[in-house]
């Protein structure tokens, strides 16, 4: 199957997809130049500054501060590592939105804590494979903690994307 950016297979940047590879074809003057990308190879997003997944971070006080908002931060939970903590600073009367996704059919959940409590102030714990989403409006300026939990830390994939907006 052949496609290109403007719906015409004779012009533009084209690509073809089969079951084993993705073939990218450059437009004229070099129409025969092809780049093969094996479909079995997983794409790894580049690290985003301000989205730290620094280990160890399995307890609240180890959570690295997120300073990049509105972008998907890649996190990993290697086999046996069941959770990651992150910290985020919020202003009073500001809504915090947290989305957790791209973890396959696994059961990942996300919880939000303030500094003084071990009881979540917001949470999303849906069925396995479903993206998690939570929203919280802070009544005061404070540091909040996001806890990402894998309910079975021995099932791959071991990565996820966390997006925080405020």
Automatic annotation (TrEMBL):
Gene3D superfamilies: 2.60.120.380. It comes from the Bacteria. This is Peptidase C-terminal archaeal/bacterial domain-containing protein.
């Amino acid at each position: 199957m052949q496609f290109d950016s403007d719906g015409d297979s004779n012009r533009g940047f084209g690509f073809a997809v089969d079951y084993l590879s993705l073939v990218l074809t450059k437009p004229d003057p070099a129409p025969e130049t092809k780049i093969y990308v094996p479909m079995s190879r997983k794409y790894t997003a580049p690290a985003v500054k301000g989205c730290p997944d620094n280990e160890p971070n399995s307890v609240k006080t180890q959570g690295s501060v997120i300073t990049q908002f509105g972008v998907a931060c890649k996190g990993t939970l290697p086999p046996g590592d069941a959770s990651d903590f992150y910290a985020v600073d919020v202003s009073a009367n500001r809504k915090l939105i947290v989305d957790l996704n791209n973890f396959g059919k696994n059961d990942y959940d996300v919880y939000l804590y303030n500094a003084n409590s071990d009881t979540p102030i917001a949470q999303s714990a849906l069925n396995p494979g479903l993206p998690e989403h939570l929203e919280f409006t802070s009544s005061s300026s404070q540091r909040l903690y996001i806890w990402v939990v894998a309910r079975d830390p021995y099932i791959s994939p071991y990565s996820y994307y966390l997006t925080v907006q405020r």
